[in-house]
Structure prediction request, 168 residues.
Amino acid sequence: MAEAKKQATGAVDKTARDAVAKAQADLAKAQANAVALTKRATEAEARIAKMEEAARAAEALAQAKTLVSGFGGATPEELSPLLLKLTAADQQIVAKLCTAGRDAVAKARLTEELGVGGRPVTGPLGELDSLAKEIAKADKLPYAQAYDRALAQRPDLYEASVRAPVAH
Prediction:
């Protein structure tokens, strides 16, 4: 009986050893899979971070294009890296400054032709201007040609304008 007990115990020990060996092999596979999954997750996070950075850069460039359009001073490509470094509150301040500057330039009418939208010219030059406009309208001529004709018709107005200061 001792022999049978010894054989039974040996069989149980072998089964237990086989189960432990299988468990250890499964554990090693699971650890290898965990390492691989961790590596893939880290790579995915890096790709996501790059995509988010690219999206922020594109958004900053679009904002910079809006801020400098019609204003100048810096290109959108120069302004966008600066915007990326600023907090949202600071970005709003920069946007307000650029908008105020652009509005001031637009209201200043710096790009308009001289004399456009200002007070009418009076005195001899005003009379020449009125006459030139009448000639341009009647003869369907450009203003410059009509002004030349007005000077030819009324040289006295030109002489008077040279002698007198321009009145506005």
Q: What stands out?
A: The longest helix spans residues 2-68. DSSP finds six helices and no strands in the chain. Residues 2-108 form one domain.
